[in-house]
Amino acid sequence: MTASIAPIKQSSSIRTNRGSYWITTFGCQMNKADSERMSGILQKMGYELAKEELTADLILYNTCTIRDNAEQKVYSYLGRQAKRKKLDPNLKIIIAGCLAQQEGESLLRRVPEIDLVMGPQHANRLETLLNQVDNGHQVLATDEQHIYEDIATARRESAICGWVNIIYGCNERCTYCVVPSVRGKEQSRTPKAIKNEIEQLASIGYKEITLLGQNIDAYGRDFNVGEYNYSGQTTLSYLLEYIHDVKGIERIRFATSHPRYFTKELIDVCSNLPKVCEHFHIPFQSGSNKILKRMARGYTIETYKEIINYIKELMPESSITADAIVAFPGETNDEFEETLSLIEDIKFDLVNTAAYSPRPNTPAASWPNQLSENIKVDRLREINRLVEKTAKARNIRYKDSKQEILIESINSKNNSQFMGRTRTNRLTFFPRSSSNGKSYKTGEIVNVKINEIRPFSLTGSLL
Ligand code: SF4
After folding, report:
1. For the chain, which domains are there?
2. pLDDT (tens digit, 9 = 90+) per residue, 97-111?
3. What's the alpha-carbon Rg for the chain, to the nearest Å?
């Protein structure tokens, strides 16, 4: 199947002021990147960013449904806006993202004040859909969609670090995960389209890019062999080499990986490409092979450890982060203990943890052996305690070390400080000028001596 992505015709000129807008984004980096693009489309249509949510003429909630609490949060926000709409019928309410895709028409029945319900695959079509709303329609856009390359310039949060989508959707079938049913089948962007976007970012001063995909290591598998990589399959390794020479870009990151597709070849390529940063986010989800089987993850703990060991062999300084789910249906205490011992074995820099949350249209949600809330709370508390302990222990290696930091911005909580990250993705704060009074600016890469460590951040001084 060839996922050819073609640009669509959008009106060229910026329209006159059409009012103000506000976007609230829930969930993952993919949603953040989608929101940046939708913000760019609204600005191109003539909307201006509102000063605050409650004064905006157009409200867009870009939603998440990965867990039940993310879903409930959206309804509380929606209730507030529905009340506003009763007082101001011109208010436009848009629900985008994964919950919109999952609930579709039932959302319009539940909150009739909503004007547009659009799934993630429709993000680039916001202008077309909003024009239908302006023509007096209530619009539902959740049909399967080829994702077009958008030409509206994303309105990005950072002026130094940019998200670049490379593959949308996921073809895996993890039994707890709602993503395939709400984000659809994998659609890889062409290497050329990706490189164009990165070159465009470099031309306006971006220094770091993060390549994004739900299952990023599967990049290109929806292309035919030789289609873009004339010597074989187009893969993430091929793409990293293909984009590595873009002038101006100093750092390359990518997320989110899947152990099933994290190959030795990819690790070799990462260790040979200087711009690829030594931070790898590889969710393991459970430390028990029995649970991994029931999750349909497609790897074992032994293969997972092999990947991590090979990374550490080639890039000993690298940081490894992951995601883990506790209290999956039927998880015994012993299987939970296996997850804890894996964390102790590998000593992760960080693990994002969550208690299993049954999701609509996922196999595991209907399984009989669901665990109680008490067990979920207890296991979450225990794993978080261990994660903080191992993260702190891992952080000790930074003490008194010299770290290369990309200055991303001024610390919003203390403007005498800059903030940035190490190549291993550790947040770092340091004074804006060095002892010899030399001053620096965002986008520069500087050397910082680390004086103080905390579980999830570092403090230092300019060298
Ligand atoms: S790889 Fe599994 S967990 Fe990740 S998005 Fe795909 S189905 Fe969900």
Report:
1. 20-141 (3.40.50.12160), 161-396 (3.80.30.20), 399-462 (2.40.50.140)
2. 999 999 999 999 999
3. 23
